# Entry
Amino acid sequence: MRTGETTIRVRYSECDPMNVAHHSAYAVWFEMGRTELLRGDGVSYADLERAGVRLAVVELNVKYRRPALYDDLLRLETRLVEASFVKIRHEYDLWRGREKLAVANTTLACLTPEGRAIELPPVLRAHAEGQARPA
Amino acid sequence: MRTGETTIRVRYSECDPMNVAHHSAYAVWFEMGRTELLRGDGVSYADLERAGVRLAVVELNVKYRRPALYDDLLRLETRLVEASFVKIRHEYDLWRGREKLAVANTTLACLTPEGRAIELPPVLRAHAEGQARPA
Amino acid sequence: MRTGETTIRVRYSECDPMNVAHHSAYAVWFEMGRTELLRGDGVSYADLERAGVRLAVVELNVKYRRPALYDDLLRLETRLVEASFVKIRHEYDLWRGREKLAVANTTLACLTPEGRAIELPPVLRAHAEGQARPA
Amino acid sequence: MRTGETTIRVRYSECDPMNVAHHSAYAVWFEMGRTELLRGDGVSYADLERAGVRLAVVELNVKYRRPALYDDLLRLETRLVEASFVKIRHEYDLWRGREKLAVANTTLACLTPEGRAIELPPVLRAHAEGQARPA
# Structure
């Protein structure tokens, strides 16, 4: 199983009055992790969209262990752990140095622009098979 | 178990190129639901913060069933389902008319401004006990 | 010149470590003001988009006088002050009670989905003429 | 006058149903530009905040010329153009390759945590004087 890494600098606008990154920002970072993992296989999500493929998040689960602070330089590990005909599952670990700040997973469904479920296109299937046995 | 209701108009800036509300926006809406549930008991989260109490999200789980669209008028049901000495658990159902768009739950931990876990203050305990048996 | 009013509750996620609403949130609120002003004339921006009309912000100017705080209930006044064949100009005043928190203006251009400038469609022209003399 | 450069990858969540970056995202990017310009002089805005200094945006003016698209790699030029006893003015040019997408400027005021205007602290004054003649 291959792992993609993304570096994230915590933005001021992502932080809230508790002086920590707001918990909704993590979902944005995980999406960046997925984009970079695809890019590492030469696949552009922007191109997929232009070809009529949508990947919709159908499930999100996050455990927040320690807060991320403004200006922190974080390291996000993104793993594609499972792919079926219509869905892809990723897992995430978010690190600041050796501290694990959060663990998470998401499930994406492959859709037409009108929102109908479709099979993963060949380029996504190849991407998934390079990293995980399809279910 | 009491239920709070919050009306949410989907903002243009919350929608993405798939023409649907971005999945990270839901975490913001759930937070609005918690704030309104507190307000219904005469408790202001802004006052709690001024008194040195922080409620940090330590877990978030969302299942997205159908997309929310720009300008949709949504109804969010928020339930406080469990409270222990240091944590509070909520459940959420998000509706557009009779369509259930998403179900979710969160766990909050009570912290000092420095991030140390503390017991729920009396006003929060009373709020929790009015709606759920403490664990 | 008619004025539309929108009520805005400041969200926790819109606030930053200075304990005030982040300055980028105001642009989102002004957009809500424009949507509500249109709705007051029976025009849905969502319908306009489905009909192939885009309104792109080409200029934004904001003066921030006093901070908006978490949970504040604000009142936004939105005025359509000028319309030409292809552009619409709005002005905004943001209030908390009798305190004026910000003044702003925006200019929108009417575009095709591909980004080419086009004349305002009749429904937008009627909306504009009801509130301002076209330039 | 020195210029700082920041590279920005447009995030999916920053894009709206027009398939372009939402105009509110630019304010976030300009803030990143200011942070990086400070960092280039060895000044951390996070440290300034811990020392009790706040820099509040009191004015924002943006002209949007061409849209930024999802996954675009943009280059932001940030210039500190003027500093008085209590305010700092920056100018911005946002580029995609040789296309200028937007020009903007902001004015920041130096405040105490309670929101009272104060003189720029020495470290900020040195930063400003290195790049612009104080007004």
Observations:
- The beta strands of chain C are 3-9, 54-64, 73-83, 87-96, 99-111.
- The domain at 3-129 of chain C is CATH 3.10.129.10 (Thiol Ester Dehydrase; Chain A).
- Chain C has a mean pLDDT of 92.
